[in-house]
Amino acid sequence: MTVESTAEKVLAGGRLSGEEALELYVAAPTSLLGRLADTIRVRKHPTGVVTYIIDRNVNYTNVCVARCSFCAFYRPVGADDGYVLGFDELFRKIDETLAVGGVQLLLQGGHNPDLPLEWYEDLFGAIKARYPDFKLHALSPPELLHLSRLSQQPVPVVVDRLVRAGLDSVPGGGAEILVDRVRRLLHCDSKATADEWLSVMRVVHRAGLRSTATMMYGSVERLEERVEHLCRLRELQDETAGFTAFITWSYQPPNTELGGAEATGIDYLRTLALSRIVLDNFDNLQASWVTQGGKVGQLSLAFGANDMGSVMIEENVVRAAGAEYCMDEAEIVRNIEDAGFAAKRRNMVYDVMGDPFFRERSIPRRTELAVARLAGDTTVPAEVSRYPARSRPGKEQRRQAAQQPELGTGD
Amino acid sequence: MNDDFSSVTQKIADGAALDERDWQTLIDTHDLIALGVAADDVRRRRHADRVTFVQVVDVPVETAANGGTLPDQAGELRLTGRPASVAAAVAAVRAVVARAGSVPVTGFALEDLQGLCGHELGRLGEVLLELREAGLALVTEAAADTLTDPEPVFDVLRTSGLTLARLTVGDVAGQAAFSLVRRVATWDGAGTVCRAFAPLRPAEPSRPTTGYSDLRQVALARLLVDNIDSIQVDWAGHGPKLAQVALTFGADDVDAVPAAAPDDLGWRRSPREEIRRNIVAAGFAAVRRNGRFETLDVHDRSEHE
Questions:
Q1: How many CB pairs under 8 A join A and B?
Q2: Cα–Cα distance measured from residue B113 to residue B124, given in angstroms and rounded to the nearest whole number
Q3: Angstroms from B210 CA to nearest CA on chain A
Q4: CA–CA distance from A93 to each of A19, A106, A308, A332 (Å)?
Q5: For the whole model, what pTM was predicted?
Q6: pLDDT digits (tens, 9 = 90+) for A230-250
Q7: Cα separations in angstroms, A304 against A45, A60, A87, A246
Q8: Please, what are the domains in chain B?
Q9: Does the first or last residue of chain B, that is N or C, have fewer Cβ atoms within 10 Å of its Cβ?
Q10: pLDDT of chain B, 305 residues: tens digit per residue
Q11: Which residue of A has its CA nearest to B214?
């Protein structure tokens, strides 16, 4: 097929095969990809509304045994700067989130062998007891798989227990590129192969939860592997209709073991547009302003995105890799309106919650995102010692805490 | 793309004059891609698939006499800052030229030189001649918002034999910048003394613009300013991502690419490789130029595959 005939097929509402999508990506000018993606966005969202969510992106621990080579955030077990957030710290973060109109936590973290499933159940239960209406968008498929392995419980059982504890929805992190050749090169196949990631999402959707889907591109994958990733997501969405949204971002090389150079802004806009074209059964595409900056983030709205993502309030993972963009609610709304759209707050399932919160009440402007923990804070939360550790350093920490109960109070 | 917008872009393609309504249609459109496509068409007719870039070493005018090693990737040595006097300006040029080898030396904002001359055009002409004789290749820039009566100033430049590397929008943004772009488009003689037009002011965190407004401004500049050959974006001032995307919205020249990576950042690619990678990824051939706008070498897509 020619680029023109493929474009005609897209405009007529046809579904592209992987081969057609790849040809289009390789041969189409950026403007054509943008035009096709924008046409689909208008078709799916004809009212001219662009949404965003006020939530907080919290990483409850940076200790991780997965050791993905593209990650600048994790710390190995026993590292001096490894941390686990305490329940009280998380409550404080929720209070701060509620104060600026937030409705949920996006809660993800490392694969910490010293945090058993019961820790998560107790945390979720405690949050729901204090904040019954506050939503928990938590634990990506590799984390769920990690808990399954740690607890020796099947994934459906893990999901069921977490749902009963308060889990509301599942973020689509850890997908990277859903092709095992790539996952082996990135050293992330052991945390979840492509099939495992997809099968966990299938379990999540069958349990009645909604989730997002993601793609981290620009590391070691080939273009056809980006397309394969999109096609695999589309296939699962056909089956379950459980994905609410898709988010793509570029690999952030600074401070990582893998290194290399970041994909360019044009790469991002082209990849986003292609995602909108291929993922014809996804309603929502988010802009990744946290990796691309506010300007390219806003331009995403011309290349297929209909959502500016999260206000975030806090971010740790991308910051560890050198990106420190910040947009508070007022700035996100300014960008949405400047692009000619109406800005509306939403929740995780894309119900519109209302007009911008900062216009209803006075909120201090924020010029930088918060962090999970201030540098140098090595506090070990008291409640962690109540749970059995798997690692040698974790066991030693528990032993010391038992001998010196005044240590690690976290207060 | 709506009919009004199509008819305006057709008028531009035909070289017809735009009326107020046409102008309003252009600046009001939120169809950013249509605007970009129209600007890209105009840009490709002028420059085909070439994007030029220059690697610049800034030399503060007050430290120009100090020695020091120049980065070997420099394509332009640029005297920055306002000189204290005409004599200081000339001395700074001589000092930098003496160690520049074949690398062109540029410098100064035209409005600063005018200030040193008491805004007397005759004196400005004499100073420009002195600077040229000292070895200045081009005057770095002039801010269009300071040129209330540009034609006599352009005449002085022509007579001196010096040209402006670029005309900027100075300190304006938003609607004021759109109006300024429109005014620059009426300066018929500008192209004989200005090599490039830079339609965006450098990014300032305290006065943020948006991606849409920046690209709209770049596209409008290319669509309307047909009297100046190049539309320029600033690699350092606007950031690589926006500057790269701007290349698909009418820009064809990238200024202020560093000649050396900062010691403290530990960059993984040299600035030259990084700019080439970005230009090629945007679908263009990367043409390295020097401060005189002379081509040094060309890299196209095949060399990055």
A1: 87
A2: 7
A3: 5
A4: 46, 12, 22, 21
A5: 0.94
A6: 999 999 999 999 999 999 999
A7: 10, 32, 39, 11
A8: 31-304 (3.20.20.70)
A9: C
A10: 677 888 998 888 787 888 889 888 988 888 999 999 999 999 999 999 999 999 999 999 999 988 777 888 899 999 999 999 999 999 999 999 999 999 999 999 999 999 999 999 999 999 999 999 999 999 999 999 999 899 999 999 999 999 999 999 998 888 899 999 999 999 988 999 999 999 999 878 788 899 999 999 999 999 999 999 999 999 998 999 999 999 999 999 999 999 987 665 555 678 899 999 999 999 999 999 999 999 999 998 666 55
A11: A295
Rounded to a whole number of angstroms, the distance from the CA of A28 to the nearest CA of chain B is 10
**Chain B residues within 8 A of A298 when measuring between CB atoms:** 210-212
Select from A259, A331, A340 the Cβ nearest to the Cβ of B30: A340
Determine the 3-state secondary structure of A134 from DSSP: coil
Q: In this structure, what token pair is assigned to residue A260? A: 């290399």
Domains, chain A, in order of start with CATH, read: 45-373 (3.20.20.70), 379-411 (no CATH)
Residues of chain B in contact with residue A41, where contact means CB-CB under 8 angstroms, are none
- In 10 A of CB A120, how many CB atoms? 26
- Phi, psi values for residue A57, rounded to 5°: -95, 95
Chain A residues touching chain B at CB-CB below 8 Å? 29-31, 34-35, 38, 253, 259-261, 264-269, 292-299, 302, 331, 334-335, 338-340
Best interface-test mutation with A: which of B212, B272, B301 has the largest number of A CBs within 10 A?
Answer: B212
Ramachandran bin of B186, using left for φ above 0, alpha for ψ from -120 to 50, beta for the remaining angles: alpha
**ipTM confidence:** 0.90
Question: Which of A103-117, A363-377, B216-230 shows the lowest mean pLDDT across its residues?
Answer: A363-377
Are A34 and B244 an interchain contact pair (Cβ–Cβ within 8 Å)? no
Can you tell me the distance from the alpha carbon of B198 to that of B166, in angstroms, rounded to the nearest whole number? Answer: 7
Token readout for A142 is 């590799």
Distance between B107 CA and the closest CA of chain A, angstroms: 30
Question: Which helix H or strand E contains B58, and what residues bound it?
Answer: strand B50-60
Instruction: Say which residues have a Cβ less than 8 Å from residue B205's Cβ, sequence separation at least 6.
Output: none
Residue of chain A with shortest Cα separation from B211: A295
Cβ of residue B49 closer than 8 Å to a chain A Cβ? no
Please name the member of A34, A261, A298 whose beta carbon is closest to the beta carbon of B211: A298
